[in-house]
Amino acid sequence: MALAALNSLSVSAQIVEKNQGYLPFADAPINYRSENLDDPVAKLQDKLDRGELKLEYEPGHGYLKSVLDALHVPVSSQTLVFSKTSFQYPEISPEHPRALYFNDDVYVGQVHQGRLLEFVSFDPMQGAIFYVLDEHKVERPRFERSELDCVQCHVANGPTKGVPGVMLRSVYVSLSGTQAAGTPAFITGQESPLKDRFGGWYVTGSSGSQLHLGNAILPDGTHADQLDMRAGANIASLTGRIDTSAYLTPYSDIVAQLVLAHQTQMHNLITQTNYQTRLALYKSGGEVTEAVRQQFEKPAEQLVRYLLFANEAPLEDRVEGTSGFAEEFAARGPRDSQGRSLRDFDLRKRLFKYPCSYLIYSEAFDSIPSPAKEFVYRRLFEVLTGSDQSPAYAALSSEDRRAVLEILVATKPSLPDEWKQFVEQAQPSNSNQKGREQQ
Q: By three-state DSSP, how is residue 119 classified?
């Protein structure tokens, strides 16, 4: 599968063949082929097998609605991509885009009149696990693991950090839905400027004066710099552009797109840190040597920077969605006694009000092996307490650091004791400071 560019696949007819050909990380200690999985789709299949749940089929949308409900994936997360970036690419076009839906742990793709639903489901230890579900009505629908063909494209040194992962691509698209010849392509993350995002995607919502590549098709024979980006900006609904009755909503929400860009690379960095630590410890026989530390500290430091949005491309104008995704997303997060959450949006100068990824609450983050997770916590503490004032974290104000630290202490179980002690010791001085400001 791909997320659009959760990317394209080189696919054979044997989409669910599991034991043929070379598969990265199939051997110890990763054992990627293991069936001992704890990802959302594996858990759902277990419920189906035990008869605790049944998927309902609906004409027109197949099992999609039932699957989204079972996986707790909001319909408001719908984003539509019309570039041919799926193994079901013959059915994808600007007239019939592919629909993608997601929550914190799983991505779901449906192609108009396609034969398979596509899934990327994140296991706490193994990272991205790929599945398909036959779209035809059957007595007992079953998720099939689709590992070999998907991993061929979803293990890439740059886009997925060299581990099974996900990526978003932004491309200049021709009338047929293919990438226009001679044009650049971009892998999208939170560091990507808006002007390079959303190529090949429909985008609904407002971005003010900021332009992007969404909603636009490059006419044959024209150059990339001739694309009319203004024509694709600030579109409230896709009604009139495509047959929206074929989709669950008429939206491809810009806020959902921004969250998707952050989340995909965050997932990859968590998996990379996990894999590199396990590989290094396996090679050393479990001893945490200097060589082992060097192997996991580099990706772990990258994870910390990304987690704290240290490299985020700033917004230059207000962004507003159309589908209700922002409100639904923000309502799901744990909050501290002041009502603050890491899922609160800013959408004026940056994506989130408090710059720390909500994926710090994920099972995947908690499953990072001990030495690497201890390093991550130590580095986070150094940055958030202000003892690290290096240029890499210069974008974080003292107010940002303090707010994130306080929110995490209040909402994240099992933090190191020094975090809580630091906040407790700082509270009296903070209260005194507030009192002086009010006088």
A: strand
Residue given tokens 């991993």 in the structure block: 151
For 421-430, write each residue's pLDDT tens digit. 999 998 765 5
- Alpha-carbon Rg for the chain, nearest whole angstrom, is 22
Question: Model's pTM, two decimal places?
Answer: 0.91
d(CA 319, CA 386): 30
Residue of higher predicted confidence among 392 and 154: 392
User: Are 64 and 49 spatial neighbours (Cβ–Cβ below 8 Å)?
Assistant: no
CA dist., res. 46 & res. 275, Å (int) = 26
* Conformation bin of residue 122: beta by default, left when phi > 0, alpha when psi is -120 to 50: beta
* Exposed e or buried b per residue across 40-66, where buried means at least 16 C-beta atoms within 10 angstroms of its C-beta: bbbebbeebeeeeeebeeeeebbbbbb
CA 210 to chain CA centroid, nearest Å: 23
pLDDT greater than 50 at residue 393: yes
Distance CA 132, CA 68 (A): 14
Eight-class DSSP state of 288: -
113 falls in which pLDDT band (50, 70, 90)? confident
Angle of CA points 373, 106, 265, to nearest 5°: 50
pLDDT of 153 higher than 60 = no
Cis peptide before 59 (omega within 30 of 0): no
Cβ proximity of 266 and 358 under 8 Å: no
At 425, which amino acid appears? Q
pLDDT at 146: 83
Tell me: pLDDT of 431 over 80.
no
Specify the pLDDT at position 87.
72
CB 71 within 8 A of CB 40: yes
Task: Check residue 242 and report its DSSP letter.
Answer: B
Residue 23 token pair? 């598969």
